[in-house]
Amino acid sequence: MRNLCIVGLQWGDEGKGKIVDYYADGFDAVVRYNGGSNAGHTIVIGGRTFVFHLIPSGFLKKKKLLIGPGVALDPLTLKDELGLISKEGGRADLLVDERCTVVTPLVKEMDAFIEGLRGDNPIGTTKRGIGPSYAMRALRLSPRAGDLARGVFDMSSAIAFYSSFMKNLPDLALWKSESKAVLEGRTGDVGGTIMQLNEKGSSVMFEGAQGVLLDLIYGTYPYVTGAHTIANYVPAGLGIPNSALGDVMGVAKAYTTRVGGGPFPTEIVEETGAQIRKEGKEYGATTGRPRRIGWLDLVALKYAVRLNGVSELALTKLDILTKVQEMKVCTSYSIEGEETSDFSRALPRLASVKPVYQDMPSFFGVELGDDRLPRVAEDFVGYLEDELKVKVTLVSTGEERSATIRRSA
Ligand code: IMP
Ligand code: MG
């Protein structure tokens, strides 16, 4: 028995959904521990694309699915996704933790309202109510999943709070009954369930949402999400001991993307960026927004690897780089004439750092193969391993489940 955490090392959209699906065979359960329906996890099988926002990506492999108390739960998204699964002829074996904070229609309005207050500098949230849902939990004004399932909670203080700054609050009666219907019989103790699975020798996979640089504390604050996105949050977000975290697989794309506002040192403003966006289908899976594109940033990646205690790395979307002539990676930042590769030091001034690039041999037109990488790609992966001091055990060379190359650890 050995648990595994899959965590995104950039600003999300590293391809975690595909990696979770690929590895799920060896696990009995797949667990979401953070974020909410702001996430968009895309899996492509046999030309069909599945996008899930809330339900763990293990569903296609018919795994036990758990949603831990660290997740901000939108009952209506859950209803939609369960509906989609049953339309496919499937049945989700799902347990939602009692303690999940709930995304109400009111927190969604609050999300848009607060973005409006930010004027010319919005965060660019997904407007899924995630930040406000966690904030309402901290204020102790949020119902929890178990309360909705039982239909016993008093929202009068929360309503009074919203009424103090928002007009025309939506009526919640229908939402309450729909939420109760979807949650009834599905809530319980996720941490306890994980421990029971482990005790009988079953392994569990933890599926991260978003990426390290969007972490509420350790990311590019304030341009971050409302949740903790680092692997270190798994035990707290699920109610399991630290020793149950297991291995940490970091997922990084061979270039970088970011959706929404905030500093992005390696952003490509030239045509190559647009080309990568098109080839990599880099549009938000939740909002459809075009993602901002940048070169691989080793300064940020080293920080993410260290912060998460990454034990192995999955590198995704290498195939996209065979479509562009240029190829480089950022190895340090220049801040007011001084060079640094310490991301924490650069963080307070990230908007004004200048990336220092290393040109790499181009992959343009290279055939990546089915089970072994060609020399130029192997050299690139070897270079990353030396720089990051961690093994790349998996390389994704296409969106299909089959386009995956395992490398020995
Ligand atoms: P929120 O999580 O909706 O509050 O959005 C905060 C920031 O995180 C925005 O820049 C979003 O674009 C970004 N974000 C949230 N979820 C994801 C995701 O799953 N992938 C990429 N960016 C995300
Ligand atoms: Mg995504």
3D structure, described in words:
The chain has 409 residues and is an alpha/beta fold. 30% of the residues lie in helices and 21% in strands. It is built from 13 helices and 20 strands. The chain has helices at 16-23, 75-87, 105-117, 130-138, 145-150, 156-163, 173-183, 190-199, 233-238, 271-279, 298-308, 343-346, 375-388, and strands spanning 4-8, 29-32, 41-45, 48-52, 64-67, 72-73, 94-97, 101-102, 187-188, 204-211, 247-253, 256-258, 292-294, 296-297, 312-316, 328-335, 338-340, 354-359, 392-396, 404-406. Strands 9-7-5-2-10-1-11-15-19-20 form a 10-stranded mixed beta sheet, with helices on both faces. Strands 14, 16, 17 and 18 form a 4-stranded mixed beta sheet that branches. The longest helix has 14 residues, at 375-388. The chain is globular. The relative contact order is 0.16. The mean pLDDT is 95. Bound molecules: inosinic acid and magnesium ion. Inosinic acid (IMP) is lined by residues 11-13, 38-40, 123-126, 128, 130-131, 209-210, 214, 223, 225-226, 259-260. Inosinic acid binds next to helix 4 and strand 10.
In short:
With 409 residues, the protein is of the alpha/beta class. The chain contains 13 helices and 20 strands.
Question: How many angstroms does the end-to-end distance come to?
Answer: 19 Å
Main β sheet profile: 10 strands, mixed
Radius of gyration: 21 Å
Query: Beta-strand level of the residues, as a percent range?
Result: 15-25%
Specify the structural class. alpha/beta
Mean pLDDT: 95
Helix proportion of residues, in percent?
Answer: 25-40%
